[in-house]
């Protein structure tokens, strides 16, 4: 007799790359997979309405090489979120994450993102519906507070209520969010980081998987944070200094193989780039995640200059990337 699969409650990864709008698309994720095989990756936030009424293939397709991969959803309707979570599971995603952290006005107008922290019961209903719909893990990404609702008891209550609905994994951006007066970019920079608040959350909820996010830029910082929490989510540094992840598999996943060199990563990308160029995708959109590969290295300016000046030209192909690489090595 076949037994029903046991639902997974969480994806226990020590390191992940944060979901970032206009950053963590499929080309960025494939590129990151040439650097780290094990780091948990996320999509950009995709709204439930886009999935339900849009081009699902364009929104959701990914390469098998991108696993492990989590789809981040934006929305507040439990039934819509449950339906999209099931779509994500059927599409092959390893988990689904609910965005309760984005402070943009567009997101607020849709009544989702960070403003949902003010409605923990609503988040709990959504999470419960999603968990009932799928076997893959359901997680929540949120801030430590919103506007004047920023005391630790408010955060504790939010996590308590949502965890009682079944959520076992919380990714916590260690800044509060201001819903008015700050842009999304300013909300990533101006509210002060409060790492001890997230550490306290882990102490109070030892049975939950608590992941910290915000301002972490080095692997030494990752190691330090892992003394207090279960996982570390890296955001902008993954885009600005992607080769930072070259040693992640060895340091945090026990991978015995040495990390690839930067030129090796470029060589690995060439067949992928050629495939998409043949399908009509512009080279400059494909190589955007690669621009910072040589950040901090001799030749990085020549690398970026050649790509920036030539990748947008009609008919540009992998020979542009090969020529740029020749200026570095």
TrEMBL record:
**EC number(s) on file:** 1.3.1.91
Origin organism is Spirulina subsalsa FACHB-351
- DUS-like FMN-binding domain mapped to chain residues: 17-323
Looking at the keywords, is Nucleus present?
Answer: no
Annotated residues that bind FMN are located at: 19-21, 72, 141, 173, 213-215, 235-236
**HAMAP family assigned to the protein according to its UniProt record, in alphabetical order:** DusA_subfam (MF_02041)
What is its biological role? Catalyzes the synthesis of 5,6-dihydrouridine (D), a modified base found in the D-loop of most tRNAs, via the reduction of the C5-C6 double bond in target uridines. Specifically modifies U20 and U20a in tRNAs.
The record's section on SUPFAM superfamilies has:
FMN-linked oxidoreductases
- Which cofactors, if any, are listed as required? FMN
| Protein name as catalogued | tRNA-dihydrouridine(20/20a) synthase
Cite the position(s) of the site with description Interacts with tRNA.
99, 185, 188
- Molecular-function annotations in GO: tRNA-dihydrouridine20 synthase activity
């Amino acid at each position: 007799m076949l037994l029903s699969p046991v639902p997974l409650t969480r994806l226990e990864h020590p390191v992940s790359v944060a979901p970032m709008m206009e950053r963590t698309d499929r080309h960025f994720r494939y590129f990151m997979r040439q650097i780290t095989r094990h780091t948990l990756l996320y999509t950009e936030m995709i709204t439930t309405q886009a999935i339900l009424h849009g081009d699902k293939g364009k929104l959701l397709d990914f390469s098998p090489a991108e696993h492990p991969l989590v789809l981040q959803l934006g929305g507040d309707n439990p039934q819509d979120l449950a339906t999209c979570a099931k779509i994500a599971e059927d599409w092959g995603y390893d988990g689904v994450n609910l965005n309760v952290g984005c402070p943009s006005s567009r997101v607020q107008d849709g009544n989702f993102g960070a403003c949902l922290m003010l409605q923990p019961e609503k988040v709990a209903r959504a999470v419960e519906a999603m968990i009932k719909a799928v076997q893959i893990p359901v997680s929540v990404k949120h801030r430590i507070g919103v506007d004047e609702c920023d005391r630790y008891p408010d955060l504790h209550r939010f996590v308590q209520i949502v965890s009682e609905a079944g959520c076992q994994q919380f990714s916590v951006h260690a800044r509060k969010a201001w819903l008015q007066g700050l842009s999304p970019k300013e909300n990533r920079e101006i509210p002060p980081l409060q790492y001890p608040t997230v550490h306290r959350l882990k102490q109070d909820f030892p049975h939950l998987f608590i992941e910290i996010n915000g301002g972490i830029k080095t692997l030494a910082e990752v190691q330090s944070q892992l003394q207090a929490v279960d996982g570390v989510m890296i955001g902008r540094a993954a885009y600005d200094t992607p080769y930072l992840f070259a040693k992640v598999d060895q340091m945090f996943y026990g991978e015995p193989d040495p990390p690839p060199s930067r030129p090796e990563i470029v060589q690995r990308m060439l067949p992928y780039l050629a495939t998409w160029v043949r399908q009509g995708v512009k080279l400059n959109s494909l190589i955007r995640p690669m621009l910072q590969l040589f950040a901090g290295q001799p030749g990085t300016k020549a690398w970026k200059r050649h790509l920036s000046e030539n990748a947008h030209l009609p008919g540009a192909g992998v020979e542009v990337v090969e020529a740029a690489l020749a200026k570095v090595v």
